[in-house]
Design the sequence.
């Protein structure tokens, strides 16, 4: 049984790590299974890629396709061209893609056209916001993939509504949370902790990288001013490369303290001790729900509604008044207490790999 695992951008690495660990265990116990890890090179900075491989004990990829950055079409086309060649040279029974990044969609299309079956880990989630590149990636991937490993029952329903039969949908839980649980005791304070003399529950965290929040300089400036004006404590802001350019034009702020992108173990440390976080990330909504940390999502919708119904997440949309109000509630400590969604228990990868082996046999 030959499996090709695809990873390309930062959040993919956390999702793929427990799958590799579990596959390796099965292989060593005598199951005739081989895997090949393909890094598309969508993310290439050490701070967005290499450090995650080191900290999550991921083996070096068998190949890095070096696709790099570009417009949506340029990047997708490059990943497709390079992956087609690689898959042609290394036959595979199953291509496994995770999440919703351009690499996920690009490699799914390539594999299906080469008549290789595809499994989508984190299949079925939907924001119903077609202005997000990720939503298009999810819809295209799920329209043609063969097997779906889902993080919620809502995702199962979305797939059923799209006409996918039940015997191809497997509700297995959340591999991002497998990684969180496996690493929570290894987290450590980033340099910024000392620099700003941070204390538990006395600072906020901010992450922003969605095109809708950061690409338009005027909108980005308004968002940042709202946050700086309404913060009563330090706001630690690890800055994604996409966000850097427009941030540089803003000058220094009173409460918002930008820093370099953090490694996984440092970021989770910062998150678990924070009073709360403002974000537009998908993964952070899930991590804060499990850590029980208040989360404000600065988007119009979420493809992870269980983090709102069960968890600690609130969606504030693009109204700055709502953002300010949520920050006020967060800082006074009057936030809902969440619970952990079903099957977000640290054992998703075991369920996924068991099922994959069954399907391949
Ligand atoms: C991508 C994913 C997004 C995910 C995010 C996590 C898509 C459509 N988007 O967005 O879902 O949440 O990763 O970070 O796949 N850049 C660097 N170094 C790098 C990579 C990128 O400097 O290693 C800069 C480049 O200027 C590039 C820009 O960041 O143009 C955007 O990178 P890209 O991979 O296109 O998308 P992200 O915004 O990172």
Sequence:
């Amino acid at each position: 049984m030959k499996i090709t695992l695809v990873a390309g951008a930062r959040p993919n690495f956390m999702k793929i790590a427990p799958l590799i660990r579990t596959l390796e265990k099965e292989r060593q116990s005598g199951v005739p299974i081989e895997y090949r890890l393909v890094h598309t090179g969508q993310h290439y900075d050490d701070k967005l890629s290499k450090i995650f491989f080191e900290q999550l004990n991921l083996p070096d990829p068998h190949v890095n396709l070096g696709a790099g950055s570009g417009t949506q079409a340029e990047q997708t086309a490059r990943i497709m061209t390079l992956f087609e060649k690689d898959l042609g040279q290394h036959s595979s029974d199953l291509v496994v893609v995770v999440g919703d990044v351009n690499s996920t969609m690009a490699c799914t299309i390539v594999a299906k056209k080469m008549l290789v079956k595809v499994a989508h880990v984190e299949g079925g989630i939907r924001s119903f916001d077609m202005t997000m590149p990720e939503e298009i990636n999810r819809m295209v991937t799920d329209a043609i993939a063969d097997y779906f490993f889902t993080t919620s029952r809502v995702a199962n329903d979305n797939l059923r509504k799209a006409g996918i039969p039940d015997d191809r949908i497997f509700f297995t839980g959340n591999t991002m949370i497998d990684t969180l649980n496996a690493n929570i005791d290894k987290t450590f304070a980033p340099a910024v902790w000392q620099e700003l003399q941070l204390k538990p529950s006395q600072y906020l965290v901010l992450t922003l990288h969605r095109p809708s929040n950061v690409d338009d300089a005027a909108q980005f400036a308004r968002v940042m001013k709202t946050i700086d004006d309404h913060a009563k404590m330090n706001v630690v802001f690890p800055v994604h490369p996409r966000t850097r350019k427009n941030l540089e034009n803003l000058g220094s702020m009173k409460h918002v303290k930008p820093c370099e992108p953090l490694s996984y173990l440092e970021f989770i440390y910062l998150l678990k001790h924070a009073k709360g976080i403002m974000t537009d990330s998908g993964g952070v909504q899930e991590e804060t729900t499990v850590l029980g940390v208040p989360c404000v999502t600065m988007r119009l919708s979420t493809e992870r509604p269980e983090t709102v119904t069960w968890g600690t997440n609130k969606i504030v949309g693009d109204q700055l008044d709502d953002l300010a109000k949520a920050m006020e509630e967060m800082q006074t400590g009057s936030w809902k207490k969440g619970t952990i969604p079903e099957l977000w228990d640290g054992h998703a990868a075991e369920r996924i790999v068991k099922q994959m082996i069954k399907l391949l046999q």
